[in-house]
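Input (structure):
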């Protein structure tokens, strides 16, 4: 007996231009307006209101004085210069590293490519301190390598260590960008170049590389923003090298000067948003079309030992450094004091799994699990509105959703600390109307948990939104139109047809949302309260206290939780009844 799916059947029937369908489309327009209004209100609360709070404080008389000192004070000018230099170094080195690994993965012939790919993505799911803490253990003044093996007493703190840590943490962003571009290049271009007598190097330099120029620009800009916005690593390994993010943190937590913190945040926000806008404009205006249909032929892999062996050696050497860092984290978790007292112990895990440590694990996981589906669904709804429903203003709606990524985490955190520390209320005719309760600080409801969930949502939303937009652009709009013509409501079509069709994008958004929520620090460090413990903040406390073993144990457990939940989400959403299969069978 065969069961039928009305939504799928609707998708299979050609669009019918009937009066009834036209009436339903009018009703759909009204519902779309309601959905857009709800989404805009949510975005206003999640990102625009905190930004407005920061601007209000930054442009107060006290804040303006601090902004003025950015020009007049030699110390503040140096901080701005430090931030710029760090961003450029990480942008250039991280882009080159990501390109090299992507080129080896896509263009070089070797076995175990899947393992190579997994190792390249390892920093994505790790907590922000894992690399920094391991680098200090290996290359610090008493590091296992520098002091133990080489007898050196060099300092890794400052710009060199910070650059190394950020490059190793963020290169996967460039790697994924270049991997996708290299896989989409038409192999016929290489064949044509070879047939014209060009060598492999000439083909790479004159054909492949020019096609990847947009990827280099986009990767550099993204890594630049990530580097200048990062707070966790400058606190751990920055030493005396002060950047804007750490300076804003000191102003808020050390000097208790909210206006100064907001002012430094504005200075940090301007280049970050400007670079983001330039990057988005570059991507939208640049065309890298190489074929008019599907790529013809198979990609030409490098088999010649003269090119293959050097590329593999460099690629494997880079990943060996990455693996050694994470092995240091794992071994350090089971060692009393790695490099000093290498005796095996479980004390680090006993400490982490008791008291505050256990509370932080439960709180962080619970809040991330709450935020993940909300961010995932909201991202898909945003993509659906931008691609399918909203014609005028879709660019503005897309930009609002992407602000969670464009605005540095430090700025988001300070904005939430200012905006939601007291209730938002208005007085109308002598009556006080409370619009939003206090979500953070001493008067916080749920111990600040609601504010943390909101931060998780707005920081994770852009990834799901972008993957959803990319997936929807590959689906024929006539499927939605056919369902609407047969009377299917807008949300019925979205729920039963659109969402299942973009299931991979939805899953990618969920996975990224959970991983980002579990490992983020910059935005939530300003809004945590004693009643809500967060793992990343506890790891920072252990590192500051010099208890690296406890920090390593936290990192190992965090990695295990992230990988386990990501695997569980993949299994839950990988159903057998795929709408695409049903449509294909019906056709």
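Output (sequence):
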């Amino acid at each position: 007996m065969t069961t039928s799916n009305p939504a799928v059947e609707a998708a299979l029937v050609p669009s019918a231009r009937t009066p009834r369908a036209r009436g339903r489309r009018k009703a759909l327009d009204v519902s779309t307006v309601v959905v857009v209004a709800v989404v805009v209100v949510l975005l206003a609360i999640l990102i625009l209101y905190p930004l407005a709070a920061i601007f209000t404080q930054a442009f107060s008389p006290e804040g303006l004085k601090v902004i003025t000192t950015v020009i007049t004070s030699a110390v503040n000018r140096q901080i701005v210069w430090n931030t710029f230099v760090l961003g450029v170094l990480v942008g250039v080195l991280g882009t080159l590293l990501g390109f090299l690994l992507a080129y080896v993965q896509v263009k070089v012939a070797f076995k175990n490519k899947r393992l190579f790919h997994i190792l390249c993505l390892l920093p994505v799911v790790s907590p922000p301190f894992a690399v920094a803490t391991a680098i200090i253990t290996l290359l610090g003044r008493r590091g296992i390598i520098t002091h133990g093996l080489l007898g050196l007493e060099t300092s890794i703190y400052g710009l060199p260590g910070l650059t190394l840590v950020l490059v190793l943490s963020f290169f996967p962003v460039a790697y994924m960008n270049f991997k996708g571009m290299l896989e989409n290049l038409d192999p016929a271009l290489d064949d044509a170049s070879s047939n014209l007598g060009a060598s492999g190097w000439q083909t790479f330099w004159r054909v492949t590389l020019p096609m990847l120029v947009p990827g280099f620009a986009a990767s550099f800009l993204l890594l630049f923003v990530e580097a200048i916005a990062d707070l966790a690593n400058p606190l751990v390994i920055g030493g005396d090298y002060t950047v804007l993010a750490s300076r804003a943190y000191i102003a808020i937590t050390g000097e208790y000067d909210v206006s100064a913190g907001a002012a430094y945040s504005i200075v940090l926000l301007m280049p970050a948003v400007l670079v983001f806008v330039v990057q988005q404009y570059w991507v939208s205006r640049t065309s890298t079309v190489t074929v008019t249909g599907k790529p013809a032929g198979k990609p030409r892999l490098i088999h010649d030992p003269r090119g293959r062996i050097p590329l593999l050696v460099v690629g494997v050497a880079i990943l060996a450094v990455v693996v050694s860092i994470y092995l240091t984290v794992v071994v350090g978790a089971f060692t009393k004091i790695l490099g000093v007292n290498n005796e095996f112990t479980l004390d680090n895990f006993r400490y982490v799994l008791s008291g505050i440590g256990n509370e932080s694990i439960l709180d962080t996981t619970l809040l991330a699990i709450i935020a993940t589906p909300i961010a995932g669904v909201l991202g898909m709804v945003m993509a659906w509105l931008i691609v399918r429903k909203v014609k005028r203003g879709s660019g503005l709606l897309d930009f609002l959703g992407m602000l969670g990524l464009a605005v540095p985490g430090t700025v988001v955190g300070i904005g939430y600390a200012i905006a939601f520390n007291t209730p938002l209320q208005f007085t109308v005719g002598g009556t006080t109307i409370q619009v939003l309760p206090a979500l953070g600080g001493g008067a916080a409801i749920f111990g600040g948990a609601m504010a943390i969930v909101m931060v998780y949502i707005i920081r994770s939303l852009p990834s799901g939104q972008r993957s959803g937009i990319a997936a929807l652009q590959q689906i024929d709009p006539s499927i939605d139109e056919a369902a609407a013509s047969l009377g299917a409501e807008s949300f019925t079509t979205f729920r039963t047809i659109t969402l299942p069709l973009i299931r991979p994008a939805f899953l990618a958004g969920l996975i990224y949302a959970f991983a980002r929520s579990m490992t983020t620090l910059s935005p939530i460090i300003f809004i945590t309260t004693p009643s809500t413990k967060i793992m990343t903040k506890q790891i920072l406390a252990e590192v500051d206290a010099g208890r690296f073993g406890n920090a390593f144990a936290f990192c190992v457990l965090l990695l295990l939780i992230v990988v386990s939940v990501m695997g569980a989400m993949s299994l839950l959403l990988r159903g057998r009844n795929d709408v695409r299969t049903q449509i294909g069978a019906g056709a």
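Notes: The first strand starts at residue 335 and ends at 337. The chain has a mean pLDDT of 80.
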